[in-house]
Amino acid sequence: MRAMSLFNDNWLFLPRPADSNVPDADFSSITLPHSNKIFPHHNFHDDEYQFISTYRKRFRLPLLLNGRRLYLDFGGAMLAATVSINGHTFPEYKGGFTPFSFDITDYVREDAENLLVVHLDSTERKDIPPYGYVVDYMTFGGIYRDVHLRYVAPVHITNVHVRTYDVLTDKPRAEVDIFVRNQSDSVFQGSVQALINSGIIAADGNVATLAIDTVPIEIAAQSQEKVTIILADLPQIALWTLDNPVRYGLGVELHQAGTCIDDYGAFPFGFREAVFKDDGFYLNGERLQLRGLNRHQTYAYIGCAAPARLQRKDADIVKFELGCNVVRTSHYPQSPHFLNRCDEIGLLVFEEIPGWQHIGDKDWQAISLRDVRAMIERDWNHPSIILWGVRINESLDNTEFYTATNALARTLDTTRQTGGVRFFPHSEFLEDVYTMNDFYGPLEPTHSPWLITEFHGHMFPTKTFDNEDRRLDHAVRHAKYHARAATMGGIAGAIAWCAFDYNTHKEFGSGDRICYHGVSDIFRLPKWAAHFYASQQAPTQRIVLQAASLWSMGDRSEGGNNPLYVFSNCDTIEVFAGTERIGEFKPNHDEFPNIPHPPFKVTGLGMRWGEEFGDLRVVGYLAGKAVAEQNIACDGHPTQLVLALDDDVIAADGADMTRLIFKVVDRYGNPLPYATPIVNFEISGDAELIGENPFALVGGQAALYVKARHTAGTVVIRASTKRLPDAEITLTIA
């Protein structure tokens, strides 16, 4: 029977090539996911991760083979991996963003120790996408995703693809493609079974089966076949929606002579219809204006090597903190943990293949076509994914290449449309959706369907410690762009560049190697533009009230605070300056039409020179009831060093992490972007801090990561800086 074993523990790492003569004592003990180097959050060179490293693992099989085949599955290793087991070396796998597997059955020892070696080339090789020219992001080295051992019968299921149809009728159905491989030397005769369950466990511990069917299958020796099972006559089903992302369970088994020989395991999927039409995007028959952000998979300090908890947290930030309904995985397939969370919470995804502007030679293009297949075959069961990106981001036209990528995508998945991100409006349209990076518009659509996939970003980079004029302008630009896109007609939506600041090459970004293009900083902490996005969600989901001001007299050009913009999803706001009531204000629909919750524009503040300059107070109202309040101190004086953890408990698995946020704030808890003290940290307990310690604070806010080791217990983190009381916070490792 099938068995899966997580294979992340007890690896050894050496940051250079090493043969079998190099003793284990020269290596460091590590747990996957792993970055080949820990970095400061800025001011480092891409050369620092560009080297060949050696990963080594000595292990005994956790389970006996008992006639089964054994596969070694890598979720991702950056950028080219050469894998050896007990002296047998497999061909190099080229590519850092897609999974790869090796059948190691014939090379493992069941009754003795095995030696697994991975030589990982993390140099930016021009023969592998995205390289060949300059690239505006970094491909940090390391085995940065999970590794598994997979035990399967000689005849086993290799993949399953579920497609849903007629979901808006009273006769919905699911079609299930089941791929079965016969690695034996004889013909296989048996059957495959597919069933849909409710996913809800009843009081008796059982799960209700909604549909089930079995079909026969015959497979020649050393070959593979596909069988399709149609599950119709379903009872009333619930649709997967953004507000209620209901998922069902699909279970698939392979039988022979009445016995189950391979249980693929149940996995979740959703019934939903997602389609781009000429006038916009429709989810389950209702038009939805898409509002989203691009996301890079890289993090401060650890590069790409973020465990499941951090990947899932990013989806939560984009959906709940930033209020988006769609995210683009720029510019490569991203972590299954991130995509699983998008499924769970109802966040739409536009996923695309690796690349950035450059198209290489035929061998390079063959890798890219393989990436199209790998991306779709890995992720085709995610209800959150609505569009496949099959064009290299911002590349020039290439009829032969892009005809092939589109044809492959449409062959693999008939239920999703294709897109191809370009940055000029009259390029050849081979995809189903014209996906356009529009930094000067919104431009009038020249094709349909039309989706804006990037705007702003490098056109107006903004730091958390920039002056108030720029930070405010940054936020207002995002608001105005979405308003224009929603007003023009024929635009399905707009996905801004981008969610989070990120590290980059010297050809891009600021002098410290950060692209300050995000609406949040590199630590996932908000700039004012982030509060605009947050304010677009329904107040039933989260009430947002944020004044875009430091409330000082001399931060803006020419001084003062007039006008004051407030980002909120309240009906009205009331504004006070000290004891003076400035007035009640409504959303500014004239300046920001056709978006759910336009910003408020507060006027009448005056210069207030020679007058008592009191604190700012903003009160938000819904249906006439006060539901939110923000106060900003008028003196900008630091009063507290604040610590916060995203999680109270993390796992003692040697890889789990949570974010430790620290801020210097005024007496109302607002971060002070011009507070730049040195913050020192101490930690007690079996965990480590990842990041700079001490930290020279910029922007009034930053973060480290707390990483668990392998012992359960309590961890205490203390932070100190001059002139403020120390701060302390506790974390449980379980």
Summarize the structure.
The longest helix is centred in the middle third of the chain and has 21 residues, at 468-488. The two termini are 31 Å apart.
List keywords for this structure.
734 residues, mainly beta, Jelly Rolls, Immunoglobulin-like, TIM Barrel, 5 domains, seven-stranded antiparallel β-sheet, globular
CATH class of the largest domain: Alpha Beta
Approximately how much helix is present in the residues? Answer: 10-25%
Mean pLDDT: 95
What number of domains? 5
Number of helices: 6
- What is the assigned CATH homologous superfamily of the largest domain? Glycosidases
| Main sheet characteristics | 7 strands, antiparallel
N- and C-termini, Cα separation: 31 Å
Report low-confidence residues grouped into runs of 5 or more: none
* Secondary-structure content class: mainly beta
Please report the total strand number as a whole number: 48
